[in-house]
Amino acid sequence: MAGCQRYRRRQHGGSVMIALPALQLGYQFIPKVGTTSLFTFFYTCVHGVDYDPLRHGRNGRAMFVHRYFIGGDCPDARDVDNRAAAIADYDGYYRFALTRDPIRRFLSMYVNRVIQKRELAANSPYAQAIMHAGLPFDPDINLLVRHLEAYLDCHSSLLHHARPMMDFLGPDLSVYDRIADLSAMNTVVEEIRAHWCRVGMAARAATAALPGKMQRCGVRLGLECLTPRSFERLLDYYHADYAELPTVSLPEIKAAYTKVAMGAAQIPPSSAARQAVPAAVTIGR
């Protein structure tokens, strides 16, 4: 399958796991859940050197490590449908995925794609589609949630990063040996090392250290930036994630939002007005 076709399939098609024969791993990537750190770790383990975006880029443009693995450029990466029959040939692989709370993941996506990369700005590649849909540029978080489907229809990258995690994982979670929360990434890496020792790859287990957080932005958004209507809207959008994933908790996120909402209600009106701007970030044009 041509690289661009594989990339589109992995972005917008059905649930597809990446099998890495050189590492005896099956990894289900989910955007905004530690993928940069893990792909960088995999590359270093295979090649013994750090990933160089310019070396693998084209025409002087850098290629991010995600694209290297999911875009058809990595000769060792294979697409495997997340069905029991399809993964039978990879039965001895350690197959895993990392998840995180869906709404917190959405907030992370907003910071990265809308604030940091300005993908909904008037000068973005998607500006014409946004304008034709009658949508404002640079929406704040609550405006984005209010018109979520309309924005996602305009913007393939936003759709890719905002899709529910169950869209990536597929309906049969039994195909995974491990589904863990993002906070357990270091534990999962140790389990990968133990797996390598079991399958005769002990030397591989000592080759690389997991890098720290790879994507950072000065802006951080918490649950307090969401209006009650936006919070309920996102609960509905990510209903399948909260219903099916054992690693996320609907009662926990509801309790967390109730706590911050009660705290916001106790702030004097004048203070609340001063805090409204950073809470619902709008990028000026």
Report what the structure shows.
With 285 residues, the protein is α/β, with parallel strands linked by helices. It has two domains: 3-100 and 165-205, no CATH class; 103-163 and 218-279, no CATH class. The protein contains 15 helices and five strands. It has helices at 3-12, 35-47, 65-70, 102-116, 127-132, 141-146, 148-154, 156-162, 165-169, 185-198, 202-205, 228-237, 239-244, 250-265, 269-279, and strands at residues 16-20, 25-28, 78-81, 94-99, 178-181. It has a five-stranded mixed β-sheet with strand order 3-1-2-4-5. Helix 4 runs antiparallel to helix 8 (156-162) and helix 7 (148-154) packs across helix 8 (156-162). The radius of gyration is 20 Å and the shape is globular. Mean pLDDT is 85; it is low at 1-13 and 269-285.
Cα separation of the termini: 41 Å
Strand content: 5-15%
Portion of residues within helices: 40-55%
User: Sheet with the most strands?
Assistant: 5 strands, mixed
Q: Strands across the major sheet, in which order?
A: 3-1-2-4-5
Q: So how many helices? A: 15
> Could you name the ranges where pLDDT drops below 50 across 5 or more consecutive residues?
1-13, 269-285
How many domains, as an integer?
Answer: 2
Strand-and-helix sequence, N→C? HEEHHEEHHHHHHEHHHHHH
Task: Please outline what is shown here.
This protein has 285 residues and is of the alpha/beta class. Helix content is 48%, strand content 8%. It has a 5-stranded mixed sheet with strand order 3-1-2-4-5.
